[in-house]
Each structure stands twice: as C-alpha cells, then as structure tokens.
Write the structure tokens for this entry.
Amino acid sequence: MNTLKSITENYHTHTFRCKHASGDASDYAKAAWEAGLTTLGFSEHTPVPDGRWNNVRMDMDQIDSYDEAIRGAQEAFPGLNILKGMECDWIPEYNNFYKEEFREKRNYCYLIGSIHWFKSEGEWIFSYSPEAFGKAREYADLLIDMIESESFDFIAHPDLFGLFSRKWNTETTAISRAICEAAKTYSIPLEINGYGFRKAQIETAEGTRYAYPVENFWEIASDYGIEVVCNSDAHRPEDVNKSIDLCLDIAERNFLPLAEFDFDKCAKEVLQ
C-alpha cells in the first residue's frame, strides 16, 4: 500500500456520454496531462441492456465509440497512463453482463461498483430524490450486497447515504460499521469521492456540511484499516484533478492507507 503522499492519479472520470458531463476522452487526457497526472482512468456510467436510467448514463450503442475515444486519447497522449473502466450501478441480475461484456469481451482494466438507485419495498429509489430520505438502511444493504459480490475493484462514494441522512445517530453509525466491516472482510477499497466537495452543502441537524464525503463515516473507517481511493469524479475536463487533495486530507486525518492497483495486464491493450 502507498504511504500518504501527493496523488497523481484519478480513476473516476466521465464523458459527455452519460448526459450530465461534458467533454470527451481526449479533452480529459489533455487536462490531466497539463495538470501533471500520471494515470487517468475513465469510468463512464455503465449502460445495461434494458435501458433503465439511461437519461443519466451511456446508451448501449455508445460503448464502441467510448472504447474508440479512449484509444484515441491513448494515442494522442502516450506519456499518460490511460485506463479503460466503467462505473457500474449494482443491479444483481446484470452482474454476469458486467463481467462478460467489460472484463472478458472488452478487457476493461477495472470496474467501479456504485449505488445511485436502491430498492425499498420493491421499488427502485434514486439516491438524490426526496423518496430516499430515511432509507439509509436500504441503501447500505444493497451496497453491502455489492461488496460481497467481489465483482468490483473498488466502491464509489460509499458514504453517499449522507445525502439523505441529515442526522448522525446510532443508525448511521451502525450502517457505517456494517459497510466498513464488509469492505474489510472482502478486502475491497472504498473511494473518498471529491465530487461532493464541488456541490452545494446541505443543512443537517449538526449544521451545514457536504452531502459527501462524510467525515463521521471516514472516522469509523479508520477503525477497520480499510484501504481508500481518492478520486475527483470528474464530469468536466477542468475538474480532472479537482478536490483530490481534499480527499487526501480526509485519508491523512483518519490514517487511512491508499490502495494500489496493478492494471498492467490491460493497460494500453486498446492500442493493439
């Protein structure tokens, strides 16, 4: 594992294809190169065959163009280690699709597991909607199920439930411990996500704070020795290196080691 240091990698990057970001792979690569990054990983929001939630994710027929855009960025910036990945919302019935389409067929370097929708009483609920309030336990249950699948290289913004849990209490403490215990058991790194620092703060019972990252969560994570990943979660080229230093501050304050990844087996394969 790394000792804490300045970070020159970002493994969480989107493109215009998700419909809520701007720019293409070459734009992000140029910005990353100019910012002094050494590694840039692309992780677009993954489409699924039934087309659900496709207003905020890539369409199935865009996967080839995504691959081609990353190949073009690699050719244009040979000095930058550019990796091909996906951010996959956890839909258990599509676990095999994720593995077969992206790991086996397309040889993606990594897959990020994330929860933006979760099930409550049989219905899928968007984490950013009012219906999510008071349902942190349902979010955590699905996230733990995702960790236990061992299908992903790390888990994005595990503390996103801070968005709809506006009071830190025994329940949120228990939820955090359950998530961290699962991550420790399965040796899955958790992401400290910098996008939350670039969003409006929220009002809570304890005062104004960022919806995420949630400091209370990461204080609990320090009890488990979990490895972490500090990412920008860039949705604009100019944000490719933003907020990573603030994520690193959280890791340092809570003595959380940085995860290291060995993606040599797939790096540059798209140039072949």
In short: The first helix runs from residue 25 to 35.
